[in-house]
Amino acid sequence: MPPTVAAAHHRGIATLTLDSPANRNALSADLVGELRAALAAAGADPAVRAVVLTHTGTTFCAGADLTAPCDPADFLALLREITELPRPVVARVTGHVRAGGLGLLGACDIAAAGPQSSYAFTETHLGLAPAVISIPLLPRLDARAAGRYFLTAEPFDAAEAARIGLLTLHAEHVDEALEPVLAGLRKASPQGLEHAKALTTAAVREALDRDGARLTELSAGLFASAEAREGITARFERRDPAWAL
Questions:
Q1: Count of alpha carbons within 13 Å of 140, Cβ hemisphere only?
Q2: Do residues 27 and 33 touch, judged by C-beta distance below 8 A?
Q3: Which one is predicted more confidently, 150 or 70?
Q4: Residue 184 domain-assigned?
Q5: Would you say residue 182 lies in a domain?
Q6: Residue 67: its pLDDT value, please?
Q7: What integer pLDDT is reported at residue 166 of this predicted model?
Q8: Angstrom distance (rounded) from CA 20 to CA 97
Q9: How far apart (Å, rounded) are the C-alpha atoms in residues 232 and 223?
Q10: Is 225 contained in some domain?
Q11: How many domains does the chain fold into?
C-alpha cells in the first residue's frame, strides 16, 4: 500500500503532506499512524523550526474514514502530539475540511487557507457529534459560532472560518501570505519556539488531559450506535437518513 503522508524538508521547514486522495485524506488508521510517526520525526530533528501540514487534492481532510475509521484513542493521541510538539505546526489549506479534519486545524498553532477552502462540522447529520475534536477547538472558537456550526452542520467559507477563530489568516494566495510567517519561524530559536508554544497551547493541553478519555469514550459509543449506522449508510446511499424531516 502506498504511503498516505509524504514528508519533505527545506530550510528548517518540515512539510508533511496528507496524500490519500482516493478517500479525500480521511482519517484512516494508516493516515493517522503515518502522520504521528512523521510528526515525531520532525520534532526530533534539531534542524526543524516548524512543521507545515498540507494536502494533495481538493480536500485537506474529510474527517473520519467511514469505511474503516481510526481508533478514537489514536486520533486523540495525534491531537495531543500536535499540541505538545516542541515546534509550531502550521496548517496550509487549499481545499475542503470536514468533521475530524477541523480537529487537526484546531490542534495546529497557525492555520492559513486559500479562497477555495470550505468547512463544515458534519457530524450531527451522521448521528454523531464533534466530540474529540471539540477539545482543541472550543478554547479557540467564538462560542456562539461553535454553538451554531456544531449543531447545524452548515458549510462556511474561509472568511467566516477566520472570523470565528478556526483560521489564523486567509488570502487569495496562501503561500504568499505564509511567507512572512515562515520567515519569522526560521529566525526563531528552538528554545524560544518551544516555550512560546507551551504558553499558547496551555488551555488546549489542559482540556486534552481533563476531557480526553471521556470524549474518546463518547465518540466510540456514538460510532457504534444505531443512529450512526443509519446516518453513515444514508450518506453512502446518497439519501436522507430516517430521522430527517
A1: 27
A2: no
A3: 150
A4: no
A5: no
A6: 87
A7: 98
A8: 14
A9: 9
A10: yes
A11: 1
Classify residue 127: in a domain, yes or no. yes
Whether 183 has a pLDDT exceeding 90, the answer reads: yes
- Residue type, position 12, single letter: G
Give the mean pLDDT of 120-142.
97
- Residue 93 sits at φ, ψ, to 5 deg, of -120, 125
CA distance 68 to 76: 17
Please state the pTM of the whole predicted model. 0.96
DSSP class per residue in the chain: ---SEEEEEETTEEEEEE--GGGTT-BBHHHHHHHHHHHHHHHH-TT-SEEEEEESSSEEE-SB-TTSBPPHHHHHHHHHHHHH-SS-EEEEE-SEEETHHHHHHHHSSEEEE-TT-EEE--GGGGT---TTTHHHHTTTS-HHHHHHHHHH---EEHHHHHHTTS-SEE-SSHHHHHHHHHHHHHHS-HHHHHHHHHHHTHHHHHHHHHHHHHHHHHHHHHHTSHHHHHHHHHHHTTS--TT--
